[in-house]
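Annotated sample (chain length 93).
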Amino acid sequence: MTHAHPPVPPHAAPRQTSGPAIASLILGLGNLVCLFMLYIPCLVGLILGIVGIRHTGASGTRSGRGMAVTGTVLNGFFAVLGPFIIISIISSQ
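Output written by the structure step:
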């Protein structure tokens, strides 16, 4: 008596990580290291983070949603607080 094995489903190819998500996270961490002094890259990182979130959404074809969200939060935080910190540093001198 031979036992028939059920067919093994093929392994799904791993999804590629979203490039904008990675770039947003790198820019957010760069702003953290440079202490809010990179305002233009901060805005670019915020936009890339939003694009990364869209790429990795529920029907998205790419992975990296956590990186996109983290990059968006970091860059958004620095975009809002950066000018206040720069002004307070300038006015204290």
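Annotation: The helical segments are 19-33, 39-55, 65-91.
Annotation: Residues 65-91 form the longest helix (27 residues).
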